[in-house]
Amino acid sequence: MTYPSLNLPPYEPLTRNNPDNQLEEIYDPQRRKYVRLTPEEWVRQHFVNYLITELGYPQGRLQNELPIRVGRMEKRCDTVVFDRNGRPAVIVEYKAPTVRLTQKVFDQIVRYNFALQVEFLMVSNGLQHYCCRLNRRLNRFEFLKELPPWSMIEG
């Protein structure tokens, strides 16, 4: 299967056809294993690579598919970035390139934030990327003009 070009720097991830089930897989360095290659996973691997190689995020501070509890429901955050003290600092939500980034997507990540209480929320479909930061003084999220480098997260 061919996947679309994304609005992210070029990246050549490791892919394979799983000999057991013939499904196409992509290697996830964060989870240290091959996972099913879906359009959303294609975006995740490119975006994580961008965070690490272009924005300076330390690879060891990112975790993919972090389980959380939202009310009584078990959910998984697509990617969580932890600060130097091991506290969650960023939640990233991915969608396939064909999925529009609507209010519903932002509502989903805000619900996840009830559990983690981070300062930064990011969403991406590989073509569009948004980040908002919690203004604690005004108790509201404000959109940033660009994705923050690691120095802003750890600042």
Give a written overview of the molecule:
By secondary structure, this protein is of the alpha+beta class. It has a single domain (15-154), classed as tt1808, chain A (Alpha-Beta Complex). 22% of the residues lie in helices and 35% in strands. It has helices at 39-53, 103-116, 150-154; strands at 15-17, 24-28, 33-36, 62-70, 73-82, 88-94, 120-124, 129-135, 140-143. The strands form two sheets. The protein has a six-stranded mixed sheet with strand order 4-5-6-7-8-9, sandwiched between helices. Strands 1-2-3 form a three-stranded antiparallel sheet, with helices on one face. A hairpin with a 4-residue loop joins strand 8 and strand 9 (140-143). It is globular and about 55 Å long. It starts with 14 loop residues before the first strand and ends with a helix. 25% of the residues are buried.
Q: What brief labels describe this structure?
A:
155 residues; alpha+beta; tt1808, chain A; six-stranded mixed β-sheet; three-stranded antiparallel β-sheet; 9 strands
Total number of β-strand segments?
A: 9
Sheet/helix structural class: alpha+beta
Major beta sheet, strand line-up = 4-5-6-7-8-9
Distance between the termini: 41 Å
Return the string of H and E elements: EEEHEEEHEEEH
Radius of gyration from CA coordinates = 15 Å
**Name of the CATH class:** Alpha Beta
Overall mean pLDDT stands at: 93
Helix tally equals 3
Describe the sheet with the most strands.
Answer: 6 strands, mixed
